[in-house]
Amino acid sequence: xxxxxxxxxxxxxxxxxxxxxxxxxxxxxxxxxxxxxxxxxxxxxxxxxxxxxxxxxxxxxxxxxxxxxxxxxxxxxxxxxxxxxxxxxxxxxxxxxxxxxxxxxxxxxxxxxxxxxxxxxxxxxxxxxxxxxxxxxxxxxxxxxxxxxxxxxxxxxxxxxxxxxxxxxxxxxxxxxxxxxxxxxxxxxxxxxxxxxxxxxxxxxxxxxxxxxxxxxxxxxxxxxxxxxxxxxxxxxxxxxxxxxxxxxxxxxxxxxxxxxxxxxxx
Length: 267
What we know:
Layout: H1 3-21, H2 26-31, H3 33-43, E1 58-61, H4 67-76, H5 117-130, E2 137-142, H6 149-160, E3 166-172, E4 175-176, E5 179-180, H7 181-184, H8 190-196, E6 200-205, H9 209-219, E7 226-231, H10 254-264
Parallel strand pairs: 1-2, 2-3, 3-7, 6-7
Antiparallel strand pairs: 4-5
């Protein structure tokens, strides 16, 4: 399968799982699918059959409400069966709405509250460097998550330690649960903020798979932490969901899932 077809399959499954399990945050999941697809199929050193391999790269999801996007990516990357995704949000399931302590294979951290993944990855990256290991750490944050002060404390620490094995990716879809991100907080100029904190920055179309792959490869030899600002669209891939913030919480009907399937070209 091509990366485009993999991303389309993930998007359709997200819609179907949301509809059947009545779990929200579909718009937030759809905006980061292309980023996850490139990371798991092109960039990261991982072994799905051995998810705890000590030489693996680590992915930490900061925007925990997009857990379904991570679960679905892991399922199609063969960490577990896609059929298990339909346990999402059900009582007693390991597929919680935000990843919990009993999360399935491949999930590296809990993320019930936003703003902690970068701090955690920063400590892990420093520990790894002190041990002389080669693991790399990738953190995906939502733009609304940047409201959290802990993000900027970690940004200063990582730059101070020149953690070249750490990449932060901002899913900059411009919307958060209660409105437009750039109106709720003064986010722009976002790249300049990260540079002022001592990070190398790259800005990229977050739905251009080739550009994402090139940006993630370009980050590897940089001798300081790298922030990739990925411009994305909330609800990307389904015309009636794109840039409509109702889909932060709304659940699609069966008819809407069928329409999404046709638009995505999934058989």
